[in-house]
Design goal:
The chain has about 80 residues and is mainly α. The protein contains five helices and no strands. Helix 1 crosses helix 5. The protein is flat.
Length: about 80
């Protein structure tokens, strides 16, 4: 059984209280992170588990991995330019 839109949306909404408890600057980052998770709702549907938080956390990990890969690539390009 895959997750429904409602289940995914409820899981995303359930984390807003955590964000509200953060300092303002951290809250903004957390809110943006959750907003970006909405892009992965179609992928979250494929998670066949009663624990919708796992799908949310996987999308967050994936976003972080993409960012790390992009920054690593940019750093490598800068390093090569510096060597020239």
């Amino acid at each position: 059984m895959s997750l429904s839109d409602r289940e995914v949306m409820e899981e995303l909404e359930s984390w807003k209280g955590f964000g509200d408890a953060l300092k303002a600057e951290d809250r903004e980052l957390f809110t943006e992170m959750l907003r970006q998770c909405y892009e992965y709702i179609p992928s979250m549907h494929s998670k066949t588990s009663p624990f919708s938080a796992e799908a949310l956390l996987m999308s967050i990990l994936f976003m972080q991995h993409k960012m790390i890969a992009r920054l690593t690539s940019e750093a490598e390009e800068l390093r090569k330019k510096k060597e020239v």
